[in-house]
Amino acid sequence: MSETRLGSPDPLIIAGTEYRSRLLIGTGKYRDLEQTRLAVEASGAEIVTIAIRRSNIGQNPGEPNLLEVLPPDRYTILPNTAGCFDAESAIRTCRLARELLDGHDLVKLEVLGDEKTLYPDIPATLEAAASLIDEGFRVMVYTSDDPVMAKRFEQMGCVAVMPLAAPIGSGLGIRNPYNIRTIVENATVPILVDAGVGTASDAAIAMELGCDGVLMNTAIAGARDPVLMADAMRKAVEAGREAFLAGRIPRRAYASASSPIDGLFFT
């Protein structure tokens, strides 16, 4: 990773495209489309995820269309397969998204295995990812925080790997920072924490661990003031990235004076 200085370019690169923002946000759970628009703008996000099975992007004529407030010429639309519990439904959802978005092939794949925890079904996710990659999709994959599986998804051709911090919508923050750091250190594709972020400090920690970005929805949409929280998350991601690049001091089990006394004259 190249060094950067304050104000210099430090783009997030996904599937060959550069982005200034390392915060990706979802578009569900907001009060209405206007609040969605305001929150996305406050976040500074350039990539927005849309749950194809739950949002209208043209498949329901006559209903409010999310793309009217989040136009594809301004944002990278990232269709996701939220709500899919088997590989075939996830694959069909991605195909529908490509049709609705005029051949758009960048997708976020998630295949869930349990309705209570919303943990990913890894075998089904592997199956779906393999099929979608064969069909020419560029797959950003939601997975567990298992370093072995993260590497497997990278090796099969996923353009980004997105391990969970904690269960979707839980707000618990990063439960296993050791695993996240291990995934980051062994990756050659972008690693983005996805799911479980609750507040700005969680986002900052993810970035300080070396993640390339953070994706969130509930932490913003479920806040008392979603637009203000979106702004806070933007700042947290930026600060966490800068702290990672700057390099933190080592942790010590003893004090280290800010002003060393060596060489001082005593009377």
Can you walk through the features of this model?
This protein is α/β, with parallel strands linked by helices. The chain is built from eight helices and ten strands. It has helices at 33-43, 87-100, 122-134, 147-156, 177-185, 200-208, 218-221, 226-246, and strands at 12-14, 17-19, 23-26, 47-51, 76-80, 106-109, 138-143, 160-163, 192-194, 213-216. It has a five-stranded parallel β-sheet. A three-stranded parallel β-sheet has the order 6-7-8.
Percent of residues in beta strands? 15-25%
With strands numbered from the N-terminus, the spatial order across the biggest sheet is 5-4-3-10-9
Distance between the termini: 50 Å
Query: Low-confidence spans: pLDDT under 50, at least 5 residues?
Result: none
Structural class computed from helices and strand pairing? alpha/beta
Helix content: 25-40%
Major sheet summary line: 5 strands, parallel
Instruction: Tell how many strands the DSSP assignment holds.
Output: 10
Number of helices: 8
Shape field: globular
What Rg is obtained from the alpha carbons, in whole angstroms?
Answer: 20 Å
Q: Mean pLDDT, as a whole number?
A: 92
- The topology string of helices and strands comes to EEEHEEHEHEHEHEHEHH
